[in-house]
C-alpha cells in the first residue's frame, strides 16, 4: 500500500479533541487514510518536505452555487439587495445548459481547491435546457474533491406569486422523482465516500410547503441530508411573516426541517429562540460572511450560535454574490465580522480555523473528516508561511488567518495530490479558464 509522508512542518494543527498542535510535525498517509501524526516518522514511500509550512485538515465548504462562477460582477446585480439581485440574474441563468453547468463547476471547484478546500457541498436549484446534477458531479470527480452535491429545486414561479421566472421552475412530482434518481445513482453512505447527495429545495419563497414536507420525508427514507436557505436578510423575515405567519425557524420546525441531518445557509437574522431551537435539535448552519457583506444582509450571530452549541460551518456562497470562492479568506472575514459586532476578543484565529475545518465536517455529518489523527481520511492542506505574507509573524497558526497566505501550497484529498506547488495537477486549468471565459462572453452577447 502506497505511503506519503508530509515531513518536518513548522506546525501540524490536528483539530483533535485536545486541539493538539505538533511543532516540527509529520503526517503519514497510507492508502488514503492518516496512519500517524507525530515527529520523526519514516516511510519508504513519497516524502513531501514541509519546512516553514503549517499543515491543517482540509477546509470544508458547506454552501455554494457553483454554476454562478459564470456570472461574477454582473453590472445589474452589483449593488442590489437579495431579491433585486436574483431578478437581475434569473434571466441569464435561464440560458445555461449542461456545458455551462459542468465548466462553471470545474472553475469553482478549482478555485476552492487552491484556497485549501478538500470537501464542498453545492446547492444546484435550477436545471435549464437539459442541465442535471450529474454535470457537477462529473466535474468534481475530474478534479478530485470530496463532494456533497444537493438536488435543489424551485417550483413557484412569478405567475404563482413566487420570485423566479416560470421558465426556471419545475413541477413538484418531477422534482421528487429526480431527487430519488440522483440519490439512488450517486449517494454513497460509506465511510470515506467521495460523493454524498442531499436534497435542497431552494428557499421558502420559491417552493411550496408541500414540497418542503415531501423532500424531508424522502430524505429521511433515503438516509440523506437536507439543505436550504433560511433567514438570510430582513426581506426574508418579512416574507416569512407575511406568507406563513411565523418566523423562519418556526417554519422550518413545522415542516420537519430541523435536526442533525439538516443544515441551513446564512441564518443572518435568527433570533434567540431560533438559535436555541437549532442548538436543541442539532441543526447546522452554513455561515457565508462575504456574501452577506456583498448583499448587505447583515452580520450573522455566529458568536451567539457557537455559545449556544449550534453547529456552525463556513460557505463561500455562489460566485455571483461573493464574488470569490476562497475559503481561507472566508474564514478570516468570519473572524473579523464577529469582532466588528462583538469586540476584538469575540473570535480568535484558531476558532475561525476550527469552524472552517472540523466545523464543516460536523455540519455535513462527516465524522471521518476534518481532523488529522490516525484513522481519519487524508484530506490535508499544506500552507507555506515562508513568503512575504507572513514575514515577521510570531504565531504561524494565527498568521494563517491574520496575515496569509490565501493560496495553499499542497492539497491532498483521500491521500491523492490535487494541488502541488500551488498548481492544480488534476486538470488543465488554463484550458478550463479559457472555456469559462468563452462561455461568459457568449452569455453576454
Automatic annotation (TrEMBL):
Domain of life: Bacteria
Keywords for this protein: Hydrolase
GO molecular function, one term: 8-oxoguanine deaminase activity
InterPro entries reported in the protein's UniProt record: Amidohydro-rel (IPR006680), Metal-dep_hydrolase_composite (IPR011059), Metal_Hydrolase (IPR032466), MTA/SAH_deaminase (IPR050287)
Residues of the Amidohydrolase-related domain: 54-389
Cited CDD domains: ATZ_TRZ_like
EC number in record: 3.5.4.32
Keyword Metal-binding set for record: no
Keyword Hydrolase: yes
Protein family membership: Belongs to the metallo-dependent hydrolases superfamily. ATZ/TRZ family.
Matches recorded under PANTHER family: AMIDOHYDROLASE-RELATED DOMAIN-CONTAINING PROTEIN, AMINOHYDROLASE SSNA-RELATED
Name recorded for this polypeptide: 8-oxoguanine deaminase
Organism field: Albidovulum salinarum
Amino acid at each position: 500500500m502506497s505511503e506519503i509522508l508530509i515531513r518536518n512542518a513548522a506546525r501540524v494543527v490536528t483539530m483533535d479533541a485536545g486541539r493538539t498542535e505538533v511543532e516540527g510535525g509529520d503526517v503519514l498517509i497510507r492508502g488514503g487514510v492518516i496512519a500517524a501524526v507525530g515527529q520523526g516518522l519514516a516511510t519508504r514511500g513519497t516524502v513531501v518536505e514541509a519546512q516553514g509550512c503549517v499543515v491543517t485538515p482540509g477546509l470544508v465548504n458547506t454552501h455554494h452555487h457553483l454554476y454562478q462562477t459564470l456570472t461574477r460582477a454582473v453590472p445589474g446585480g452589483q449593488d442590489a439587495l437579495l431579491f433585486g439581485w436574483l431578478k437581475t440574474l434569473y434571466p441569464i441563468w435561464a440560458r445555461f445548459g449542461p456545458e455551462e453547468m459542468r465548466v462553471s463547476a470545474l472553475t469553482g471547484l478549482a478555485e476552492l481547491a487552491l484556497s485549501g478546500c478538500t470537501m464542498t457541498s453545492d446547492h444546484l436549484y435550477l436545471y435549464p435546457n437539459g442541465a442535471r446534477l450529474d454535470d457537477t458531479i462529473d466535474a468534481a470527480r475530474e478534479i478530485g474533491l470530496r463532494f456533497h452535491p444537493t438536488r435543489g429545486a424551485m417550483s413557484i414561479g412569478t405567475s404563482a406569486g413566487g420570485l423566479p421566472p416560470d421558465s426556471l421552475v419545475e413541477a413538484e412530482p418531477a422534482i421528487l422523482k429526480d431527487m430519488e434518481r440522483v440519490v439512488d445513482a450517486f449517494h454513497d453512505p460509506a465511510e470515506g465516500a467521495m460523493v454524498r447527495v442531499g436534497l435542497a429545495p431552494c428557499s421558502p419563497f420559491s417552493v411550496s410547503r408541500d414540497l418542503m414536507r415531501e423532500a424531508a420525508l424522502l430524505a429521511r427514507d433515503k438516509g440523506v441530508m437536507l439543505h436550504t436557505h433560511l433567514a438570510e436578510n430582513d426581506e426574508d423575515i418579512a416574507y416569512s411573516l407575511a406568507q406563513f405567519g411565523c418566523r423562519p425557524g418556526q417554519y422550518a420546525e413545522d415542516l420537519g426541517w430541523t435536526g442533525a441531518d439538516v443544515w441551513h445557509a446564512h441564518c443572518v437574522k435568527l433570533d434567540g429562540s431560533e438559535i436555541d431551537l437549532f442548538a436543541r435539535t442539532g441543526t447546522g448552519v452554513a455561515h457565508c460572511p462575504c456574501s452577506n457583506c456583498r448583499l448587505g444582509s447583515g452580520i450573522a450571530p455566529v458568536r451567539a450560535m457557537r455559545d449556544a452549541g449550534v453547529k456552525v460551518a463556513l460557505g463561500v456562497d455562489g460566485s455571483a454574490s461573493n464574488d470569490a470562492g476562497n475559503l481561507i479568506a472566508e474564514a478570516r472575514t468570519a473572524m473579523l465580522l464577529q469582532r466588528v459586532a462583538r469586540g476584538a476578543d469575540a473570535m480568535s484565529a484558531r476558532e475561525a480555523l476550527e469552524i472552517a475545518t472540523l466545523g464543516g465536517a460536523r455540519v455535513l455529518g462527516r465524522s471521518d473528516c476534518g481532523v488529522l489523527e490516525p484513522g481519519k481520511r487524508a484530506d490535508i492542506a499544506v500552507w507555506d508561511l515562508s513568503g512575504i505574507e507572513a514575514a515577521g509573524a510570531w504565531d504561524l497558526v494565527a498568521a494563517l488567518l491574520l496575515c496569509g497566505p490565501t493560496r495553499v501550497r499542497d492539497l491532498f484529498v483521500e491521500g491523492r495530490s490535487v494541488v502541488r506547488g500551488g498548481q492544480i495537477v488534476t486538470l488543465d486549468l488554463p484550458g478550463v479558464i479559457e472555456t469559462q471565459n468563452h462561455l461568459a462572453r457568449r452569455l453576454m452577447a
